[in-house]
Specification:
The chain is α+β, with helices and mostly antiparallel strands. It has 1 helix and 9 strands. A hairpin with a 5-residue loop joins strand 4 and strand 5. The protein starts with a helix and ends with a strand.
Length: about 120
């Protein structure tokens, strides 16, 4: 009887650990982006493209693009790629001058988890 009880506790603990671990990884993590982090591009991008580890909800996601002298660059509405729900595309609606830029992004994954982050790139 004691062996069975110990075994049940061990199985329950293992199941709980696996369940908690999988939900900890259920956030949309940024996999790659264009322009790339720390890149120096010669032509100003027409859009910022973010690729995540899981699908995102465009209606609850977006970014702020900040340029030289902390000037906010006007961007359009974030949209998901029609063929890839893991890709978020945000059009840049204002001319980007040469200088350093910061992208502050936030997304809500299809399962409701919120994630945010930032990265830098420069326009030559």
């Amino acid at each position: 009887m004691a062996f069975t009880r110990t075994r049940l506790i061990t199985i329950a603990t293992l199941f709980t650990a696996l369940t908690v671990s999988s939900s900890a990884f259920a956030h949309a993590h940024l996999k790659h982006q264009y322009p790339a982090a720390d890149a120096a591009v010669t032509a100003a991008p027409q859009a910022i493209t973010l690729n995540f580890s899981e699908g995102v909800e465009a209606n609850f996601s977006g970014l702020t693009l900040t340029g030289p002298q902390q000037t906010v660059v006007k961007t359009g509405t974030a949209k998901r790629n029609e063929k890839d729900d893991k890709q978020l595309i945000v059009p840049v609606e204002e001319a980007m001058k040469p200088g350093d830029y910061q992208v502050d992004w936030h997304v809500v994954s299809v399962d409701g988890h919120k994630t945010k982050g930032n990265y830098h790139f420069s326009v030559k």
